[in-house]
Amino acid sequence: MIRAAFGLVGLLGALAVVPTAGAEGNSDYSVLIISRERLEVATTCEIGVYLNDQLSGRVFQEQSTSFNLPPGPVDVRLRLLPGQAPGCLPGVEDQRSTRLTLQAGQINKYRIAMGQYGLELKRASLGY
Fold first, then answer.
1. In sequence order, what are the residues at sequence separation of 6 or more whose Cβ sits closer than 8 angstroms to the Cβ of residue 127?
2. Residue 48 CA: distances (Å) to CA of 51, 77, 123
């Protein structure tokens, strides 16, 4: 019985040493939302979202994707991905990326639009 009591006290003491996770820990990141909710891009093809030249997300019509990223600069590039629908092969496309500077605790929302040189990001309101 005494051994069980000491074991319980030891367990409670060990739990007191472990730091607790709180909401303030989330402020070390920035949220990046990329939306294709509007019908500005007249294609049914899937759009790939590349962060720092690595495929990080895929967006279909009327969808959005979000990322929790560390603060600082991030390069975002959009391109059509080959898929099952006809005409989704990218061909020759603009390889430029958009550099965004993210701040800790900030929520950034962008929508995909068709620009003069192909797919581009436009800042969007959060809507809440």
1. none
2. 10, 8, 18
Give Cβ neighbours of residue 26 (< 8 Å, ≥ 6 apart).
Answer: 105
What per-residue confidence (pLDDT) applies to 67? 95
**Mean per-residue pLDDT for 97-124?**
89
Closest CA relative to residue 32, chosen from 94, 63, 76: 76
SS percent in the chain: helix, strand, coil, step 5: 15, 40, 40
Say what the pTM is.
0.71
Whether 80 has a pLDDT exceeding 80, the answer reads yes
For tokens 């192909």, name the residue: 118
CB-based contact 124:107 (threshold 8 Å)? no
d(CA 71, CA 105) in angstroms, rounded, equals 8
Q: Which domains does the chain have, with CATH numbers?
A: 28-123 (2.60.40)
The residue count for the chain: 128
The pLDDT value given to residue 108: 93
85 or 37, which is more confident? 37
